[in-house]
Amino acid sequence: MVPMEPTYTRPGEPTDGPLTFEELQLATRNRGMPLEALRYDVTPVGLHYLLTHFDIPFIASADWRLTISGVENPAELSYEDIRAMPAATLPVTMECAGNGRAKLHPRPISNPWINEAIGTAEWTGTSLWPILERAGLPDSAVELIFTGADPGIQGNVEQFYERSLTLAEARRPEVMLVYEMNGRPLEPQHGFPVRLIVPGWYGMTSVKWLVSIRTATEPFHGYQMTSYRYRAASGEVGEPVQRMRPRALMIPPGIPDYFSRHRLVQAGRVVLVGRAWSGEGSIDRVEVGVDGSGADATLGPSVGDFAWRPWSFEWDAQPGEHTLSCRATDSAGNTQPTEAPWNAGGFGNNMAQQVPVTVR
After folding, report:
1. In the 8-state DSSP scheme, what is residue 354?
2. How many domains does the chain have?
């Protein structure tokens, strides 16, 4: 058997062809949350989605330090220093900005997510802003730059993974430095020993393996900031990718065909269940469609202010072929589109989910 040779394709170039070798490499390194895991209020660590841009660093907690610079009182904090600070636990739904990319036509070349780049965890740590207040922010500071311990090359730029936040965004009490996920120390792939969590924003903002925070006197234009923008074509400036757009997902009902994942459902009463979330407001409504005809689902209590909300819907399943769908609306009036919002990076595709089923 002749081994498959890599076909090095330029990232960001759209294609309508089959998955490339590079996309398969990314898909095997990263993982989505199986949609049946929507049954859990809090996603078990092993089922939470994962995306790692470069390599997972090996860091011993005893050796780790967080450097805070560009402030009046520069500091170097140890793992024990962070753990000794006032702690809080917050359930947060996190979604990759590229969730839904594989369903775009043409498809931007990157990690080929379908719907599963999602998860909700209970994060334990300490609020960021009191640490910055003690450090003393200069009047000239306009942003904070967060640097991870993972180096690599992206867009022909050798870099450490870095993102920035405005001071106004960093001041939110729910923006935290966290060291536990679901009641136990962070797993290496999730940012051990300490990572940033920015509730409401897409996951690329929550820098893992955090080693440095520094102030900036002007907006930061590092690669991980300029690449995450909604652009109709490469080369445009575009709008920054920030807060999660509203999305509802259902657990595909019945049982799956192994290869195609097509669903087989027994006729009769079927309770459809799922979750909905938004980074721009609370979830006010979920519409469930059966062959295009929609009705409101019943909403349950949210897991937290920054976490998904459960919903359910009773369906009288009649024999035949059907298409189910679900669509969320948030308190800011944002509703999921029924067609994919295309952009060159494949970001923010929150098109309403559709699930074909055969009822027997």
Report:
1. E
2. 2
Note whether 263 and 168 are same-domain residues.
no
pLDDT, tens digit, for every residue of 249-302?
A: 999 999 999 999 999 999 999 999 999 999 999 999 999 999 999 999 999 999
The CATH number of residue 70's host domain is 3.90.420.10
Residues 106 and 144 in one domain: yes
On whether the CB atoms of residues 313 and 299 are closer than 8 A, the answer is no
Dist CA 222 CA 36 (whole Å): 37
The answer to whether residue 7 scores a pLDDT higher than 70 is: no
Q: Which residues, in sequence order, are bridge partners of residue 210?
A: 148
- Which pLDDT value is given to residue 19? 93
Backbone angles phi, psi at 289, to 5 degrees: -110, 145
CATH number reported for the structural domain that contains residue 298 in this entry: 2.60.40.650
CB neighbour list of residue 332: distance below 8 Å, 6 or more residues apart: 278, 280, 281
201/268 same-domain check: no
Residue 155: domain span: 14-227
Cβ neighbors of 256 (< 8 A, separation 6 or more) are 262, 263, 264
Per-residue three-class SS string for 17-42: CCCCHHHHHHHHHCECCCHHHHHCCC
With contact defined as beta carbons under 8 Å apart, do 332 and 281 qualify? yes
- pLDDT (0 to 100) of residue 174: 98
For residue 212, give the nearest of 307, 311, 145, 158 by alpha carbon. Answer: 145
Instruction: Give the other-Cβ count within 10 Å of 294's Cβ.
Output: 15
What proportion of the chain, given as a percentage, has pLDDT over 70? 97
